[in-house]
From TrEMBL:
<dbReference type="GO" id="GO:0003904">
    <property type="term" value="F:deoxyribodipyrimidine photo-lyase activity"/>
</dbReference>
<protein>
    <recommendedName>
        <fullName>Photolyase/cryptochrome alpha/beta domain-containing protein</fullName>
    </recommendedName>
</protein>
<feature type="region of interest" description="Disordered">
    <location>
        <begin position="1"/>
        <end position="21"/>
    </location>
</feature>
<dbReference type="Pfam" id="PF00875">
    <property type="entry name" value="DNA_photolyase"/>
</dbReference>
<dbReference type="GO" id="GO:0000719">
    <property type="term" value="P:photoreactive repair"/>
</dbReference>
<dbReference type="InterPro" id="IPR006050">
    <property type="entry name" value="DNA_photolyase_N"/>
</dbReference>
<dbReference type="InterPro" id="IPR036155">
    <property type="entry name" value="Crypto/Photolyase_N_sf"/>
</dbReference>
<dbReference type="InterPro" id="IPR052219">
    <property type="entry name" value="Photolyase_Class-2"/>
</dbReference>
<dbReference type="InterPro" id="IPR014729">
    <property type="entry name" value="Rossmann-like_a/b/a_fold"/>
</dbReference>
<feature type="domain" description="Photolyase/cryptochrome alpha/beta">
    <location>
        <begin position="64"/>
        <end position="196"/>
    </location>
</feature>
Amino acid sequence: MGSEEPSPKKLKLSGDVSKTEKSDYVRILADERQKAAESVLEFKFNKKRVKILSSAQDVPDWAEGVVYWMFRDERVQDNWAFLFAQKLALKNEIPLHICFCVKPKFLDATIRHYKFLFKGLEEVASECKSLNIEFHLLIGNGEEVLPGFVEKNKIGAVVVDFMPLRDCLSWAQTLKKSLPKEVPLIQVDAHNIVPCWTASDKLEYGARTIRGKITRQLPEFLTQFPPVVKHPFSGKLKADKIDWEAAEKSLQVDRSVGPVTGFVPGYKAGISVLQEFCNKRIKMFGSKR
């Protein structure tokens, strides 16, 4: 459980990134992943990022796939939950499936939020297809629709990402009770550099008290990501063609707040914004933020 990942000294990027072209950060990050490891199976994964929520801990012999229930971390690369799910699937030589469950309503999210979300998920689905990973868009609350999906398709493990809101934590607990008892439910903090449950063992009341705890653990957790690779194992379960229009119609949200221009969804667009910030705006951040 205490295995450490490569030293953060490997985080240095090659060359002067301030002189790169618009799309180069995507290429540079891909190159850095390849330097970290050929795949997650060869990478020394720090298991402190992982919590096993169920009594079952091992993928059963009859398993015909692993599922990653994607919710908070909607990307393929640089995603510890996705990587751990692929690690399990590679180790057991079975297919990998990604499920995104479209909740009819989530907090006060409007149609603006969901349109942005769906466009980003289209990119995720396309990348999954290129990697021989089936991406399933399920309509309904995950804790309600996933148990049937798991049982019907002989899924041997479910990986979920981590979101600290009480409602989201309760979904995982509800799912745990509904899964077949032989199927492990595993949570991975893919959102924080230092996993939330490792950063502190108590409720913190201010940044001053937790800042030092996080900083002390950065050498262990601030590391490179290995790549999510083309998955070598396929199965009979194939994803249905996604009807994005039907998914949108299933929503019970405020439709008066429409999309805005100037904000492009998806991982690649996000990396482009990061590069533009690093190259042009970071020098003004201290005085004009």
